[in-house]
Design goal:
heterodimer, A: 272 residues, mainly alpha, MetI-like fold, B: 296 residues, Putrescine transport system permease protein PotH (chain B), membrane (chain B)
Chain lengths: 272, 296
């Protein structure tokens, strides 16, 4: 019997207030007519107007979306392959090194990852720009994807793959027709995770970027270094809005599928 | 053949873009900056074979590391990063445990929503969440306005650009990393154990310390490492919320690289940072393994 006490209720209320009040304040002040944070000068959407007229921000946003799209797509392919290798390929020479290289970037400080990649790009004479940022983001994001995908691969029944092989599938067909549909939710959430990580990254992008490839976090960082800017509040509000919408939609969809699945299972039991 | 290609592709990618870059950092940390830009001496001449390799090794030295020990800025920054990481982990645990406990005790139908509310900040930009505190903590910020308005204080508190602001920023952004593992440990807890403890004469508080807390220890440790390890190398929080007095090694490395352009020293800073991190990372791995075995 669970007892939900007043203490539990208070700590939840205070905890969630702590998590959400700063973001609510940020959103509220994006609608402030005054440039100063101190003065509430009435409701206005003028900062949104200024934001959309600021070419620099729009360019940076476009660069960021391109980088995130390509990096997360490459990272999903590579990360899924890596997960499959880790879970299914059995023993091969250098396996320990391989799994070490998958897990190490997850705990590696971003400043070190960024520095080392920059020194590599300079060492091989690759001009820094959007391509180098994509390479860098693909590398750290593929590790997150492979962790997400391998946790799903571990939990599913390998005999399904074996059955497909017995029935005459080539290994690739077995992967495409059996494995991939089962791990698809993990692959999709891996892609989303990689996309968000790339959108969000400041440090690695600062090290690996070059002229003409300024990403949005770099732009935001240099704008807010010295103080609060209402345009950035407006930009943040838009981003918080998109994320909130996305997360709520995703959780509604997964709830819906869970309910549907439960109903189908019950129907199957009844007909049996 | 297919199997080989499947292994080789991600393997080569990681070798080329993770391991080799790190070897380069290590090598440059032992080199001298001739004219503060590449190439760094000595160069490895593969054409000269083994002799070339020996000549290469002979030229490497620990000069940059000696420099780090002589300038007290660096070891102060390492120590202060460890200190800030330690205390912010303790504070985050203090704030996060009651939240995770409340979530685990909440009625079943609330839990998916509560979980979503904890995960939502994960998907929101880290930079924006740190930036949000700038407007709150500044001298004319929302917090000072509110406290002045309520008459609690007579003049604004200076919080922004101090270590206090850094602590607030860290606790705020890393809180979900603490709450989630503790929650997942507490959620599995069998309530009948608590009932048994109380039947046997424990008070509620005793039952908590003797039963609940020890059983959530794996989650607590995991949460602590998930906060402690990344905070040591943190860059964004100290540079946005901290002041000139905030010494953190991630910030020093970034500045050493971009402002002073001293690459060999920046590389040596990175190598030592990694050596410091090895201990907590290994402990974290051991803790995760132990938990996985316990679940089996």
């Amino acid at each position: 019997m669970r007892r939900f006490s007043w203490f539990n209720a208070t700590s939840l209320t205070l905890g969630f207030a702590f998590l959400y009040l700063p973001m609510i304040i940020l959103v509220v002040y994006s609608f402030n007519a005054s440039r100063l944070v101190t003065v509430w000068a009435g409701f206005s959407t003028k900062w949104y107007g200024e934001l959309f007229q600021n070419k620099d921000f729009l360019n940076a946003a476009w660069v960021t979306i391109k980088v995130a799209f390509f990096a997360s797509t490459f990272a999903t392919v590579l990360g899924t392959m890596a997960a499959y290798v880790l879970v299914r390929a059995g023993r091969f020479p250098g396996r320990t090194l391989f799994s070490g290289m998958i897990y190490a970037p997850l705990v590696m400080p971003e400043v070190i990852t960024g520095l080392s990649l920059l020194l590599l790009f300079i060492g091989i004479g690759l001009d820094r720009g959007i391509v180098t940022v994509i390479l860098a983001h693909t590398t750290f994001a593929m590790c997150y994807v492979s962790v997400v995908v391998s946790s799903r691969l571990v939990s599913f029944d390998q005999s399904l793959e074996e059955a497909a092989l017995d029935l005459g599938c080539t290994p690739f067909e077995a992967f495409r027709l059996v494995t991939l549909p089962i791990i698809a939710p993990a692959v999709i959430s891996g892609w989303l995770l990689a996309f968000t990580l790339s959108l969000d990254d400041l440090v690695i992008a600062s090290f690996t970027t070059g002229p003409g490839a300024t990403t949005l976090p770099i732009k935001v960082f240099s704008a807010v270094r010295l103080g609060v800017s209402p345009e950035i509040n407006a930009l943040s509000t838009i981003m918080i809005g998109i994320v909130t919408f996305g997360v709520i939609t995703a959780s509604l969809i997964s709830k819906h599928t869970a309910v549907k699945q439960a109903r189908e299972e019950r129907a199957a039991e009844r007909s049996a | 053949m297919r199997r080989l290609a499947l292994i080789a592709f991600p393997y080569v990618w990681l070798l080329a873009l993770f391991l080799i870059p790190f070897a380069i950092v290590f090598k440059i940390s032992l080199s001298d900056a001739a004219i503060a830009r590449p190439p760094y001496l000595p160069l490895l001449e593969l054409s000269e074979g083994w002799d070339g390799f020996k000549a290469f090794l002979a030229e490497l030295d620990f000069e940059n590391y000696v420099f780090l020990t002589e300038d007290d800025l660096y070891w102060k920054a390492y120590l202060s990063s460890l200190k800030i990481a330690f205390f912010s982990t303790v504070i985050t645990l203090g704030v996060g445990y009651p939240i995770a406990y409340g979530m685990a005790r909440a009625p079943d139908e609330w839990r998916p929503t509560l979980l979503m509310l904890i995960i939502l900040p994960f998907w929101t930009s880290f930079l924006i969440r740190v930036y949000a505190w700038k407007g709150i903590l500044s001298n004319e910020g929302v917090l000072n306005q509110a406290l002045l308005g309520l008459g609690v204080i007579n003049e604004p508190l200076t919080i922004l650009n101090t270590n206090t602001a850094v602590y607030i920023g860290i606790v705020y952004t890393y809180l979900p990393f603490m709450v989630l593992p503790i929650y997942s440990a507490l959620e599995k807890l069998d309530d009948s154990l608590l009932e048994a403890a109380e039947d046997l004469g424990c008070s509620k508080i005793q039952a908590f310390w003797l039963v609940t807390f020890p059983l959530s220890r794996g989650g607590v440790l995991a949460g602590c490492f998930l906060v402690f390890i990344p905070v040591i190398g943190e860059f964004v929080i100290p540079s946005l919320l901290g002041g000139s007095g905030t010494l953190m090694i991630g910030k020093i490395l970034f500045e050493e690289f971009f402002a002073n352009r001293d690459w060999p020293v920046a590389s040596a800073v990175a190598v030592i940072l990694l050596l410091i991190l090895i201990v907590p990372i290994v402990l974290f791995q051991l803790n995760q393994q132990k938990q996985q075995e316990a679940e089996r």
